[in-house]
Amino acid sequence: MRTVIAHSDEVETESALEDLLRQCDAGLAGETPRGAVLFMTSEYDGDLVLSRLQERWPGLPLIGSSTDGEVSSVLGYRGDSVCLTLFTGQGAEFVAAQGLAPSCDLEGALDEVLETLGERRPALCFVLCPGTTGNASDVIDGLHRRLTGRVCPIVGGLAGDHEVAPTTRQFFGSEFHHDSLVVLFVCGDVKVSHGVASGWFPIGAPHTVTRSTGNKVHEIDDRPALEIYQGLWGERVTTNLGEFPLAVFCGGEDGDYFLRAAMACDEAEGSVTFAGDVPTGSTVRLTEVVPDGILSGTQTSIRNALACFPGARPEVGLLISCAARKWVLGTRAQEEIGELLEAFEDLSLPTIQLAGFYAFGEICPVEAGGPPRLHNETCVTLLLGE
Fold it and tell me: Could you tell me the residue ranges of all domains in the chain?
């Protein structure tokens, strides 16, 4: 397997396409791509980009999504750009699948995806979901349930945008939708690993969620959830909730955990709404971070992925980082890609290709072989090679 990454920040769609295809042609050197992943902000003409790519490579298995920014080893971080990853070579088969309207008919959407996969046994399920419609936790759990027996990691993210609005886009072949589940199954003799870290760390005593409804937490320790937050952070928590995610533990207060970003609070009822489910009975702790901590989380993510990579060396890394991390980092956001490239260099792997995007949620198991989890404010690194 070989990878070609093209990344353009030309403002006009036509100019960006010309730049993108020029880079692709130079990198492919006459080869035909066998699979593709596209990350692109919504300012570009999606119909034009997708139709032009399909004209160049008819039938190319392609998925992708809109983003809140893109990163690559070509241009680094860009707030508005088009980033295309092409996979070539004979060592893997790439199968693109789509399930429409998962927020309305999740089982029907999953049926579509699994019907396309057929009897294949993938080495990886790379999934992109709507960023602001439906329940992403249900999508991930449903996909995991349907793939039981075909052991493969489910990794990916939620489509992003520059505004939190129901306009995120999911790309499939020559079309895009605002409410679809798109999956790129990677089959064959492909080695895969993943790492996940945030830089936020739990502080204070553990608590128990005593009443919640989906992603709204009403009570923690039988007290209004907002009261627990304000007990540590005071009134500032109500005006800047994004800086205070909740650590939700998978198995005991000292084990692995994933983050849930606080999105809104209701001061009258004392509830806090999160960007993902927090079930009643969950063990949780409040968290703290500083900007340097966010960047150290980025390095930890890549190091965790490299530590468990089962092959000789990875060919490509895909990065899914949370848009909220970028918001907290502010003008330092461009340093995140630098941390990843520096980690590769420190480990004597400076030539690895890298592409990724800022998402409205990240999908990855907490540990190798574990079930996929929806994360917030987290950096996920996915490595592929042979």
Answer: 2-191+293-385, 201-287
